[in-house]
What we know:
The protein is mainly beta. It has one helix at 13-21; strands at 39-44, 48-52, 56-62, 71-76, 79-90, 93-104, 115-119, 122-128.
Amino acid sequence: MKLIKYDNAYADPFSTLDKWFSDSFFRPDRFSIFNDLAEQKTSRSVAINIYEDEENYYLTAEVPGFSKKEINVELENSVLTISGERKTKKDKSEYSESFSRSVTVGDKVNGDKVKAKLEDGVLTVTLPRREESKPKSINVS
């Protein structure tokens, strides 16, 4: 004998209300005519990739369309923060786009020698390891 689960959508009145209010009719941006069109701001997340070798840690971030002047890289209290902001004008509207991403790098990084390079929309941050955190080869006798 096969059992079939009975699903009565009308048994829970709150599920119907949740469905109604999640509908696009009740979205706050539905009446976009009331939004300030002169200055719209968008924020996005940046995809990053972290890898290492024996000498350095590397962080790459995809930031297409941003120039070197629009990107800020900071290392403070073992936290690497990459942020950027740019403003573009299209017709009579001005748009602002920004991003920010923070990564904890720990105490194994030599903060005085950190380098950042932007090439073809990819930001590469090189974080040199401290001497005491580099792997050491030990000879077996």
